[in-house]
Amino acid sequence: MASILIIDDDTVLCSMLFEQITAAGHHAVEAHTLVDGRRCSAKRGFDVILLDVQLPDGNGLEHIADFKRASLEPEVIIITGQGEADGAERAVRSGAWSYIAKPHVIRELDLHLARALQYRRERQKVTTIPVALKRSRIIGSSTAISGCLDRVARAAASNVSVLISGDTGTGKELFAKAIHENSRRSQENFIIVDCAALPETLIESTLFGHVKGAFTNADRDHDGLIKHAHRGTLFLDEVGELSPAIQKSFLRLLQEHEYRPVGSNRQLFSDFRLVAATNRNLDELVAAGTFREDLLFRLKAFTIALPPLKERKEDLRELVSFFMHDICQRYGLEAKGISADFLDTLAAHDWPGNVRELSQVMEQVFTNPLLGSTCFSIHLPESFRIMQVRSGFDKSRPAASANETNLPHWRFFKDRCEIDYLQRLRAASTGTISEACRLSGLSRSRLYQMINKHGLTFS
Amino acid sequence: MNLFFYSSRRAACPDDCAYPNCAEHCLWTLQSQSVLSAVQRLPYGELFPLPPQAQLRSGDLIIVHVANLQELEDLIDHGQALDNYRLVLILNDQVYDNSRRYHLLNPRYIATTRQAAGELETVVSRIARQANADQTGTGRQRSPLTA
Question: Taking the model in full, what pTM does it have?
Answer without folding.
Answer: 0.68
